[in-house]
Amino acid sequence: MKEHWRRTFLIIWSGQLISILSSAVVGYAIIFWLSIETGSAEILAIAAIAAMLPQAVLGLFTGVYIDRWNRKLVMILSDCFIALCTLVLVILFSVGKIEYWHIYLLAAARSVGSAFHMPAMQASLPLLAPESKLMRIAGVNQMIHSISAIGGPALGALLLAVLDMKYVLLFDIAGALFAATTLLFVVIPNPEKSGKKKTPHVWNEMKESIAEIRKDKGLAFLFLFSVIATFFIMPIAVMFPLMTINHFNGTVFHMSVVEVFWGAGMLAGGALAGIKLHAGNKTLNLDELNKATLINYMYIIFGLTFFFSGILSPAGFIWFVILTAIGGVSTSVYNASFTSLIQLKIDPAMLGRVFSVYMSFNYIPSMIGLLGTGFIADRIGLINAFIICGFVNFAIGLISLMIPSIRRTGISTL
Length: 414
What we know:
The chain has about 425 residues and is mainly α. It has one domain (about 1-185, about 200-410): Up-down Bundle (Growth Hormone, Chain: A), CATH 1.20.1250.20. The protein has 16 helices and two strands. The protein has a two-stranded antiparallel ribbon. α1 (about 5-40) runs antiparallel to α6 (about 165-185), α3 (about 70-95) packs antiparallel against α4 and α11 runs antiparallel to α12 (about 315-345). The longest helix is centred in the N-terminal third of the chain and has 34 residues, at about 5-40. The radius of gyration is 21 Å and the shape is globular.
């Protein structure tokens, strides 16, 4: 199976590119629409919470079933369910009955599909390709997300300007159905299960997945620091459009420029993770580097981009764009490193559970942070929020570099 991994991933990547790009186009169109309609950080935060809450709650349990069910079928049904949810939103816009709570509800429903799709996809990768290619595959996956991050805001702003929202939403439906169709043409194996097939015991198996993470002390620390970092990042992430509009006096065009450069940075980061670099007679492959150390350096870089963004004057928009691009690079390398490290360290038969629990542990504190978005924007201020978040992430990177168990867990096992 793994001998033909390139053909398999070419098919999967084509479907994922179209699906993720179309979702990004629609997602940014909705963000821009809400930003223009309300100009409220709290509205944006509520929409973000609605999109994460089901994944945070269901993520504690979905992995138990993903590791038992047919993972390919799980992904296909998840894509179809997401398309159905978007169709409902199309109908509401078409009849002119759309309310903010409709968007929240449908975002939550789409999140249910994602709660099954993402862990099933990530858990399948080690069974489709050789271990030596996992970092490269993670890099390509980041490049797909980056292309979507580049094209999403630009196309979202363009389509929102020339088309009614109900027609923009149709792109998401088409993308989800295309991704589901491409999966029909590949074979995705399920991990071998030892012993008799047992009835799933959700609570016990969830505890088993946590125990699997804690077996490697360094990996457990990485999970903990990731949760802390995300707690501080998420409230700031939803304020990027407001930072552009309120601090830099920008427009929808400027918001899309920021998002495009963020995506360009992620694309560059994905390329760094997915290709070999040649310098004279030496070849550098990120797969050969200590992945935990890479993760920690990315915290430091990302923290600095937030910190310096916070001290910019309103005339410094171009520097804000450049710092955003650098942040995109660090985020992409971070995600590729973290994902491939989990895939290398965790038994494939438990990957669905581990990825779903990891997703929940990241989303739950993120939502707590998002609940304070309105308070942060009104009391602390956008500028101070960026500075504080940047300092915290910088500190996390420095502290992590000093922990020996984290350095040991990042040494390549290939």
